[in-house]
């Protein structure tokens, strides 16, 4: 399995419409320090509030910022930051928000698996095991609460819900997404695993969401927790968003959530997923601090790219059993080692 990620992380930016860092401001005093750690080291990562002119390291803020945000930026005191307003727990509003389709009674994932999966030896190697569709929460009221938590996060980040890759005018066309272009090749999703993925998509379309809750943490921002026990190799979600050429995003300093979709030999054919305008719950799953043993122990998901019917797709899959209430984490640097995780909580 090959994982590939690319996220822009440069803190300084010459563009005039971005907030200032100490390195960008020639008039800044040399003794400007971070209000949190009282240090003036790493000035390129000291961000100045556009109201009070106080400095803050990107990595000292809670939640941490990995890059200079677009537009004006105000420190926690000046912005009077509060917990985002919860999405209304009203079924009709959630149906409209997620575009839930009404249809005949669904077949449970357990029954589908029971019909198709054979009993296997416990000593079977992990490489030969099949992916599992997630099992939604049985209680419909709890499912509404789960979906409302995701709607809250999406609305707070001004993101439209989508559960598939989107191709929009001015960016990469769908015809550019050819898994055969992957440098070194890309593993093909098996027929049975493709059926499991399709089942997950169909369940979400019907409002049977993954058993997950999006929680706002003052230190990490929006995070995702398991709302029931999840088995190893369960498909959690697909990483989705607008598909674009990497070459179009080289100067996107705020694209800290970009995911590599296609790593081609020709740089002009490389594709990324940009979830800033359209996305799903994958956008809010946290990354580990892979610079420490404690951080690496948190990982309970794998980010894997597959060839699905000739197109590249990115899945987040459980890499061990996950307990109820456990926060979800994966390695942002599974392949390219470009994301700065050393300051992650």
Automatic annotation (TrEMBL):
PHD-type domain ranges (all copies): 31-81
Domain SET residues, every copy: 210-333
Tagged with keyword Nucleus: no
Annotated InterPro entries: ATXR5/ATXR6, SET_dom, SET_dom_sf, Zinc_finger_PHD-type_CS, Znf_FYVE_PHD, Znf_PHD, Znf_PHD-finger, Znf_RING/FYVE/PHD
SMART domains cross-referenced by the UniProt entry: PHD
UniProt region (Disordered), positions on chain: 1-25
Keyword Zinc: yes
Annotated keywords: Chromatin regulator, Metal-binding, Zinc, Zinc-finger
Protein name: PHD-type domain-containing protein
Taxonomic lineage from the root: Eukaryota, Viridiplantae, Streptophyta, Embryophyta, Tracheophyta
Originating gene: A06p042790.1_BraROA
